[in-house]
Amino acid sequence: ELKVEQNPLFLSMQEGKNYTIYCNYSTTSDRLYWYRQDPGKSLESLFVLLSNGAVKQEGRLMASLDTKARLSTLHITAAVHDLSATYFCAVDDGSEKLVFGKGTKLTVNP
Amino acid sequence: DSGVTQTPKHLITATGQRVTLRCSPRSGDLSVYWYQQSLDQGLQFLIQYYNGEERAKGNILERFSAQQFPDLHSELNLSSLELGDSALYFCASSVVLAGVETQYFGPGTRLLVL
Fold it and tell me: Which of A101, B5, B25, B76 could be joined to A6 by an S-S link, Cβ 3.0–4.6 Å?
């Protein structure tokens, strides 16, 4: 059974700082997704990572995938308050089902 | 706005009751997924339909059922409700572009069972 672990679960950081969220998964998969969820809102797709070494960037967020280590990272550069949200990684289990991590609640303080 | 619509937005009901949640996918999307998000279980995949047929099943209770209609909208039926069924229920529809499937989530239905 595929398990997905994110850490940290809670992250409080100052504006302007850099940090990384980690997503580990237990079995081989060729697709990993990152989503953002604002409080009381739905999930917004951020990145889809398909292959080993894939790197995608959008603004201050950069996601990468290492399929050999079964690890994805979401790097935040020079955080701003607008990035405060909960970030989820999700892994395709090979049968078109997504298994989600518990989410990382990010708070960016001025 | 993802283009996926869900009704109702909020639902308050009592234990033992039955409710129906409705989802309309984005125009042209054939797949509909249902998820449950709760504080203790996190986000869990329930079931997927593709063009009217059940495609994949996750952690869906026997008290829950779903279907997708010819117009592609989907309904999730929850019966014999228990307190623990209180959660946010999302549906998502997906599109495959250049071989990559992306799911777009609706705004969710917040269910409170009292």
Answer: A101
A65 neighbors A54 (Cβ within 8 angstroms): yes
Average confidence (pLDDT) over B42-65: 93
Average pLDDT, chain B: 94
Mean pLDDT by 10 residues, chain A (110 residues): 94 95 92 93 92 89 94 95 96 86 94
3-class secondary structure per residue, chain B: CCCCEEECCEEEECCCCCEEEEEECCCCCCEEEEEEEECCCEEEEEEEEECCEEEEECCCCCCEEEEECCCCCEEEEECCCCHHHCEEEEEEEEEEECCEEEEEECCCEEEEEC
User: How close B65 comes to chain A (CA, Å)?
Assistant: 17
Residue identified by tokens 């953002």 is A36
Distance CA B25, CA B80 (A): 27
Best mutation target, B23, B44, B45, to test chain A (most A CBs within 10 A): B45
B58 has a chain A CB within 8 A of its CB: yes
Residues from chain A contacting residue B104 (CB–CB below 8 Å)? 45
CA distance A54 to A56: 7
What share of chain B has pLDDT > 90, as a percent? 82
The pLDDT of residue B59: 83
